[in-house]
Amino acid sequence: MINIFYILPFFIALLAYEGKALTVLGGITGILLAYVVLILRDEKWFLILFFFFVIASIATRYKEDKKSKYEIVKKIRGPEHILANGGVALIATVIGNPFLFIGSLSTSLADTMSSEIGMLSKKKPVMITTFKKTRTGVNGGITRLGNTVALLSAFSLGLLSLIIVPHYSVVLISTVSGFLGMLIDSVIGAVWENRNIIGNNATNFIASLSGGLIACILSYFI
Fold first, then answer.
1. How does pLDDT run across 104-140, given as a tens digit for each residue?
2. How many CA atoms lie within 13 A of 48 on its CB side?
3. CB under 8 Å, gap of 24 or more: what pairs does 8-16 form?
4. Distance of CA 219 to the CA centre of its chain
5. pLDDT tens digit sequence for 143-161
6. Residue ranges covered by each domain of the chain
7. Residue 128, SS3?
8. Is the dihedral of CA 116, 118, 123, 129 positive or negative?
């Protein structure tokens, strides 16, 4: 019998390519990442990765026409974007560290939700480093709506993570690490990315690594 989990990555990548969300190389990279998770770990780890991709994709597509007025260019995602958001999860899969895996993906999901849904806030965002109002779409800008959905998404991924770490503490670890990782992403965006010191992919990788490490640290105390 064919395992549906081994077919799913191809199906998802094809849909993403047809929807102009991924390049061919981006799709191949995503498929390879999914297979590494399935082969080295199991379907439970894959489900967490799958949850991240589906929710993040829905958030990105949600009210796209309204977001377009902010003149934020949505690039078709290539392998560099996949590795920026999933590279730490890949490392965690290879070394077998579930908390690094959960914390990094929780951060990437929280960051995506914060920016994509927070952009729709009726209130102007404030810069995380100064708390002064700024225009929508600027790196480092945060909103109450964005922070709320970021917290909820990190919590949701934590609930799902109970399938690989069957202890209630993982929910708290995912929530805290994901939210803090998202805030770190905003700070890096405000301080470095806005000055063109680093790019968006580097920001995302550093933030997801930070969230993963925070989760690892918390796992020793909670």
1. 999 999 999 999 998 888 899 999 999 999 888 889 9
2. 36
3. 8/34, 8/50, 9/34, 9/35, 9/38, 12/50, 12/53, 12/54, 16/57, 16/77
4. 20
5. 999 999 999 999 999 999 9
6. 4-221
7. coil
8. negative
